[in-house]
């Protein structure tokens, strides 16, 4: 029995290790290709084992190309502003909804929830954002449409507040003469660090990885975020040449474009890979509470 | 009395105001805008100024072969994704649960969640790294084995498999974490009693673990079924690199709507396809919720 159990554990761990390899090797192909010399890439193709180590693709991105560096900065700014704005709006919406005594609470909850059941779709949204609000080719386009506040996150936060902050605590603060904004800032927020971290991770990931708003509303290359640049570079080879050589006095055909592609993709996931180990527990928490009914 | 009540709740309503305005703009105004599907849309005249043309957009849409292809693709891919995703994730979650090593469990979860964090655009670079005709890893391996290289981005027959593998790769970790969370919530005394009774590992899984997962499986499956008319736009547009020869197996409702709006400027038909998606999607959500409610009142979405 003990012997069989040992065998089972070895086999089970073996299976899990294979699965992990399946998950991680494709990412490794990206990394390995990005540090392979251009000539080797052209001869051997993208390969898991670099036949020579060469960081020149990264040098182009980080030192020589204005466009790529600007895209990177833009992604960072959009992610920070967007996440902060989203968390503010989500908190401001979730707190009143946890107050059972609020007149009209049911109606407002339904107003929020209905947006998860039905939506107008891309065509009316696109026409509205471009013809009524004129967000085309503005920074607003990367932050506001669809990403600023979502019913799902509000419900997640409200559920958390309802089950973690006793009504008595809020009543007590009110009797002490605190106004609602003060209660939110001094009482509720300090007790919501865990849910705020979880939401910040999910929302931040959403902003950093977003490319749809850029695809729909941006066609000016100074406003391309990293993900949008990546999108353009793969679908339009001319674009890679023209943008990577922008401001450079070299022949575009001399660029290590095969390797640059992969290096930018690696840069696109690098910030996530850096913060992920520290925030992993919040991600797991976010996935699991998100699935439970709000 | 009334006045003091208003004064008391006014700050709360003030807090709600930005969110309500945002929902009106971002969600409710486009819902009103769906009438564009019944109009002959003209950018100069706007949605309300354009002339009505009744059901013409819909008639044109459903007369084309496209309507059938995009519906078939959206539905079939989703069904396969749901089936393989669920079975795979349950298998991995059960396996994780049987492992003894605590550190191993955590490390495995961390690694299999990684693909979930990668944006679909970066995923398209990974797929390109494997399948690029000139530089792709797969073609170079084929050549080394003395076989002919394949022009992947113009061979539709491979793509149903490629898309299924990519989807599985991206989502297996997420789904596993969901099931694993339910699994570790199972009362351990059941297992202890089973061990005392001499149950084998397989019997414990078969009679305790799997039945305990069933409610989660049914809720998550119904939630996916209610979204079966929607597809991951990036997976079907960006990953196949918007390649024309692949359209037959990669065109879904979402990619069709996008191309109609942005590429071929066929706003009317694009809006009709969008409305078709919204309405059928809405009916499916209500239906899924009603089915869950018949079995278990606590598990409904609303």
Task: Please provide a written account of the structure.
The complex is a heterodimer of chains A (about 290) and B (about 300). Chain A has about 290 residues and is mostly helical. Chain A has a single domain (about 65-290), classed as MetI-like fold, CATH 1.10.3720. Chain A has helices at about 1-35, 40-45, 55-65, 65-100, 105-115, 120-130, 140-145, 150-165, 165-175, 180-190, 195-210, 210-215, 225-235, 235-245, 255-290. In chain A, helix 3 (about 55-65) packs across helix 15 (about 255-290). The model of chain A has no long low-confidence stretch (mean pLDDT about 90). Chain B has one domain (about 35-300): MetI-like (MetI-like fold). Chain B has 14 helices and 2 strands, in the order H-E-H-E-H-H-H-H-H-H-H-H-H-H-H-H. Chain B is about 75% helix and about 0% strand. Chain B has helices at about 1-30, 45-50, 55-65, 65-100, 100-115, 120-130, 135-145, 160-185, 190-195, 200-225, 235, 245-250, 255-265, 265-295, and strands spanning about 40, 50. The model of chain B has no long low-confidence stretch (mean pLDDT about 90). The two termini of chain B are about 35 Å apart. Chain B is globular, with a radius of gyration of 25 Å. Chain B is an all-alpha fold and about 300 residues long. In chain B, helix 4 crosses helix 8 (about 160-185), helix 10 (about 200-225) packs across helix 14 and helix 13 packs antiparallel against helix 14 (about 265-295). Chains A and B meet through helix 1, helix 2, helix 4, helix 5 and helix 6 of A and helix 1, helix 4, helix 5, helix 6 and helix 7 of B.
